[in-house]
Design brief:
With 201 residues, the protein is α+β, with helices and mostly antiparallel strands. The protein is built from three helices and six strands; from the N terminus they run H-H-H-E-E-E-E-E-E. The chain has a domain of 108 residues. The longest helix is centred in the first third of the chain and has 27 residues.
Length: 201
């Protein structure tokens, strides 16, 4: 191979290497490529600001209202803590139903309008056995609870009012058919497989 051709090949390779090195240096200098994105500060009048920075309470405040509570039709929600590790909110019944006729349900919050009442508390279980008036509607889909392999009806929350603390309900925690003899948090996939479909919250 002629010496001139070898020289040209050498110069071309060196130029490529220098160009790649320059590109890497430019990328390192460009913080928009290497630095993680920074979230903008919350606006003081935004719902998320109040949810983040408002003082937390030990227990709910009786009579407190949040969201749209203008409708004449509402439900009664009884907060219950699932000691098996499930994600259900508690029991929900129509205001005209008997106290023990509720349905175990999952709560879909509406940020900016109404969120789960326990989010205003210091602890997630600080409102155990408290009751609320709930405004909203049942969703057309169900929520899958991966902790216990269960499908739960979903209530879409539009607003609520704190009623007060009551005695525990007599029903066993969880949806109908849950085997309560299994260890806390254990999955039921081997004995209770999901046969049907359903939406995911």
């Amino acid at each position: 191979m002629p010496a001139r051709l070898l020289s040209l090949l050498f110069l071309g390779t060196a130029a490529l290497l220098l160009g790649a090195g320059g590109a890497r240096a430019q990328m390192a200098a460009d913080t928009s490529i290497t630095a993680p994105p920074v979230a903008p500060p919350l606006k003081t009048n935004s719902p998320l600001y109040h949810l983040t920075y408002d003082p937390k309470l030990d227990i709910p405040q009786v009579g407190y209202r949040e969201g749209d509570t203008s409708g004449a039709v509402f439900f009664i929600a009884h907060r219950a803590i699932d000691t098996d590790g499930g994600q259900g909110f508690g029991w929900l019944r129509k205001s005209s139903d008997d106290r023990d006729d509720g349905t175990w349900f999952a709560l879909q919050e509406h940020p900016g309008l109404a969120v789960a009442p326990f989010r205003k508390l210091k602890t997630r279980d600080g409102d155990a056995d408290w009751e609320y008036k709930f405004w909203g509607h049942y969703a057309t889909y169900k929520a899958y609870d991966p902790h216990l392999d269960e499908l739960l009806p979903v209530f879409v929350l539009q607003g609520y009012e704190v009623i007060g603390q009551t005695a525990p309900l007599r029903q066993p925690i969880g949806p109908p058919g849950r085997p309560h003899s299994r260890p806390s948090g254990a999955s039921s996939r081997s004995s209770n497989p999901i046969q049907g479909g359903g939406g995911i919250d």
